[in-house]
Amino acid sequence: MNNLRIIYDNAIDRAVLTASSQAGGLGPANLQRDERSAVLRAEGTGVAIFATWPTPELIACVAPIRSNMNSSARMRVRGYDRAGDSTPVLDTGVMMPCPEAPLGASPIGYLPPGWNGYQWGGVNTWARGGGSDGVAWFEPVSVRQLVIELSSVDNPDGYIELSRLVAGMYWSPEYNASYGASATSVDTSESYRTAAGAAKNNVGTRHRQLSLNLEFLTGADSARLARIVDECGTVRPLLFSLFPENADPVLEQQHMLYGRIANIEAISAPSFGIYSTPLQIEGF
């Protein structure tokens, strides 16, 4: 099993983005904004996104974040040493970015067909926990251009839309998080009763939160994590996956978040050469 991975430097933010199609003003520039309502919306159920850099970027992951893709969606990522090259240095082939639960994971009929860890839906559902995240992990490769092809031919919306795109190199500690990591669904709705005793609700928004303890950090990992916290603070988002490339994709889906560090805690030294700190990530 792979240890947790964190992408804290999103190369997409310094790329020039174009797309094969867009609906009106909902273009690829929105993929560089941290706003749920800012989306790239394709004119149909397929779109190609081109990310180009003037200098080489080291990439080991591509993740379309907060989209309306369902479990049958497909993605292909190709990377080129230079824009315009005909032969890619990276080609993931066609893969499923947010696949369904594997067959045999539950008794037949227990889960509906196509079920995965996400509540599918477009931008109008995202405030209440809708939308799905996709991911492709691969060996690190230096590229100047990425071509990301997305398709969701049976999407009930009739088009693809996504809010954020992440690509970059990840950091992974030598020792994984301790047992007891928790994934929480946070609902900001408020319940109250009227003077007549009727139960009412002020409907709020929903987001997810991950809490874990890194109790066995080496000196090098402690220094690297401290730099990540210094660079991101509680403001700049990062991509966090507790179970990357797990054989059960739903386990990764439930424990992968694009969001911000919710706490800045001290990194302590409980024993010689070993460091520890709690970490909490609040979803986008």
What would the keywords be for this entry?
seven-stranded antiparallel beta sheet, mainly beta, 40% strand, Elongation Factor Tu (Ef-tu), domain 3, Jelly Rolls, 284 residues, 2 domains
Structure, briefly:
With 284 residues, the chain is mainly beta. Helix content is 7%, strand content 40%. The strands form 3 sheets. Strands 1, 9, 12, 13, 14, 15 and 16 form a 7-stranded antiparallel sheet that branches. Strands 2, 3, 4, 5, 6, 7 and 8 form a 7-stranded antiparallel sheet that branches. It has a two-stranded antiparallel ribbon with strand order 10-11.
Radius of gyration: 20 Å
- Sheet of most strands: 7 strands, antiparallel
Helix content: under 10%
Termini distance?
Answer: 26 Å
CATH class bucket of the largest domain? Mainly Beta
Number of strands: 16
CATH architecture classification of the largest domain: Sandwich
Spell out the helices and strands N to C.
EEEEEEEEEEEEHEHEEE
The assigned structural class equals mainly beta
Beta strand %: 35-45%
Can you give a write-up of this model?
This protein has helices at about 220-230, 250-255; strands spanning about 5, 15-20, 40, 45-65, 75-80, 90, 135-150, 160-170, 180-185, 190-195, 200, 205-215, 240, 255-260, 270, 275-284. The chain is globular and about 55 Å long. The protein has two domains: about 5-170, Jelly Rolls; about 180-284, Elongation Factor Tu (Ef-tu), domain 3, CATH 2.40.30. The two termini are about 25 Å apart. Strands 1, 9, 12, 13, 14, 15 and 16 form a seven-stranded antiparallel beta sheet that branches. Strands 2, 3, 4, 5, 6, 7 and 8 form a seven-stranded antiparallel beta sheet that branches. About 35% of the residues are buried. It has two helices and 16 strands.
